[in-house]
Amino acid sequence: MARKETAADAANAGRLKQIALTYKMTRKADKTIGLVLAAVGIGTLGVFLAIGFLVGHPVYLGIFGLLIALLATAIVFGRRAERAAFGQMEGQPGAAAAVLDNIGRGWTTTPAVTMNRSQDVVHRAVGKAGIVLVAEGNPNRVKTLLAAEKKKMNRIVADVPVHDLIVGSGEGQVELKKLRTTMLKLPRVLTGPQVTATNDRLRALGDLMSNMPLPKGPMPKGMKLPKGGPRGR
Predict the structure, then answer these.
(1) Number of Cβ atoms within 10 Å of the Cβ of 161
(2) What's the whole-number average pLDDT of the chain?
């Protein structure tokens, strides 16, 4: 019994620590977060208390209002924390890959399936919507990468639809904060077994990192890397 209580206390302490850390990180990008949360909580509780006094049940509605105020504050905090996180990730290399890793069940993601020397990169996600190629980098350069990757996909899985998205804030691009929503809105055209079969056929391709000809283990003395470095596919 004592062990269970200790584990529960540790879990609660870890959760509170995580909330505090999230709040600190959010406050760096959103200076008004404290005032906003206070206004939401106090305002919501105040409304229920006022209704309680009007109907003659301030205690009951006060308790209910407190619960609703906590829930409303948590919802607002979560949304503003998410917005702040996306704001900090915007423009950072690999930001799209981080979003894809958290897209949810039913998707298999492979980061950096192709890249060029300018570090423009294309990631791949496979789900019931088919294959989605997500590019981040210079819009003009990534179009070439996307075209080459789509051509490769059409050779290997010609019967699977291939979508392409470019992360950015320009015309025809998808903002980082809307990437997950955009992908989840794509029409589902594949069944579970078809998704599995597609992943099996693509697994033979590997990804950019696994295909790079880098030796395993420590580099022998006197050995030098070839000039120009590794090239993207």
Answers:
(1) 14
(2) 79
Tokens standing for residue 38: 């206070």
| Distances 87 to 26, 30, 178 between C-alpha atoms, Å | 10, 10, 12
51/58 Cα distance (integer angstroms): 7
The residue ranking higher by pLDDT, 194 or 12, is 194
Amino acid, single-letter form, for residue 57? H
Q: Name the DSSP letter for residue 91.
A: T
pTM attached to this predicted model? 0.60
| 72-114 pLDDT tens trace | 999 988 878 777 666 666 666 667 887 888 787 889 988 888 8
In angstroms, rounded to a whole number, what is the distance separating the alpha carbons of residues 232 and 87? 29
Burial class (CB in 10 A: 0-12, 13-18, 19+), 175: middle
Distance, in Å, from the CA atom of 67 to the CA atom of 187, rounded to the nearest integer, reads: 38
